[in-house]
Task: structure prediction
Amino acid sequence: MSDGEAPGAWASRVMVVMAHPDDAEFSSGGTLARWARAGKEIEYVLFTRGDKGTSDPEMTSERLAQIREGEQRAAAATLGVKDVHFLGWPDGGVEDTWEGRGQVVRHLRRFKPDIVVTMDPHRRYRQHRDHRHAATMALDASFPYARDHLFYPEHKAEGLEPHHVGEVFIAGAEEPDTFIDIREVFDLKIDALRCHLSQVGDGPREAFVERVKSMGARLLGKLPEGYEPGVTEAFRRIDFRRR
Result:
C-alpha cells in the first residue's frame, strides 16, 4: 500500500460484523457508502436483530425483531450494501463462544472479504456487552481462525476453504489511527440512519443531523489537520498483510 493510497482502496470485498441493527450506520455508515460508491462489494453479519431496544411498553421482542430487521435491510440498501445476515443471537445475550466465533468464520470463508469492519472490544466504561463480545469474536475469527484449516474443519465439508483477511477496521476505537472524510456522503449516512425509525424517531431532519454531528465531538483533539468532527469517521486499522 502506497503512502498516498486512501484507506481500504486496495480491497474489493468488505464484511461488517456488528452486534445490532444500526451499529454499522452509526459507526461507519459514511465510510461504507464511500466504499460502495467505489464499487466494493459489502455484506453485513449481525449477531442480533435488536429485539430488546425499545421503551414502548406495548412492544414485544418478536415484533421488534421483525421491525428492526426490516429497518436494517432498508438502511443497508440505502448505503449500497449487498446483503445482511443475522446470526440469531438474542439482544443482550451475545457471548464469546466457540460456536459464535465459528458462525463468523463460516461467513468469512464463504464471502472471503479483504476487509472486516467491527467495533472496539476494549472501549472503556460505556460499552454494550454485546458490542464487546461481537467484536472480540470478529477479531478472533479474522485472525487466526478463518486462516487455519484445522479450526472448524467441518467447513471444508461445506466447500469452504480457509481465508486470509487482509485488514480489520475497528470503528469507535479508543485510539484511532485512520480517518475518513465522509462529507460527500454524509446525507446518505443520515438517510440510512433514519431508516431505523424505531430507534431514532421521526423528528425533524435538521435536529437529527445536529445530533449525529455532535457525536463526533469525542474526536476533538485526535483529528489530523483538515478533518472535521461530525463528518469524519475514525478507525483503528489492523493490517494482517504485513507480518
User: Anything to note?
Assistant: The CA atoms of residues 134 and 205 lie 31 Å apart. The radius of gyration is 17 Å. The chain has one domain: 13-239.
